[in-house]
Amino acid sequence: MSANEIMVSLVFALLGYWIVSFFLQRKPTAAPPQDAQPPAQGWNQVLNVDANASVDEIRASYRALMSQYHPDKVANLGPELREVAERKSKEITAAYREAMRSRDLGE
């Protein structure tokens, strides 16, 4: 084999490996039901606090909820539960950030 043939073989072998690994790593995504819509909740409903709650109450609720729903807490229970925990923890974090923005703390 010439050097050119070796290079072409190597390039195509790497390209083929990349293509196969790309398709094997893709997870099938399930389409959400047509009638499913995200719940329209305010930050105080997500954090289970009153809209007039103090910053300390908001932080305490955020920490308590994150200790329950953090994805690392359910890592050994399976990928489905981990995905649910990740979604819930993102929702809790977004609500906490919105609460802090509403208090002009911007944390």
Q: What's the quick description here?
A:
The chain has four helices and no strands. The protein is an all-alpha fold and 107 residues long. It has a domain at 41-102: Helix Hairpins, CATH 1.10.287.110.
Describe the structure.
The protein is mainly alpha-helical and 107 residues long. It has a domain of 62 residues: DnaJ domain (Helix Hairpins). It has four helices and no strands. Helix 3 runs antiparallel to helix 4. The chain is elongated, with a radius of gyration of 23 Å. About 5% of the residues have low confidence.
Key structural traits:
107 residues, mainly alpha, Helix Hairpins, 4 helices
> How many DSSP E strands?
0
User: If helices are DSSP runs of H or I spanning 4 or more residues, what is the number of helices?
Assistant: 4
Shape: elongated
Contiguous runs where pLDDT drops below 50 for at least 5 residues: 35-39
* CATH architectural label of the domain at 41-102: Orthogonal Bundle
Mean pLDDT: 81
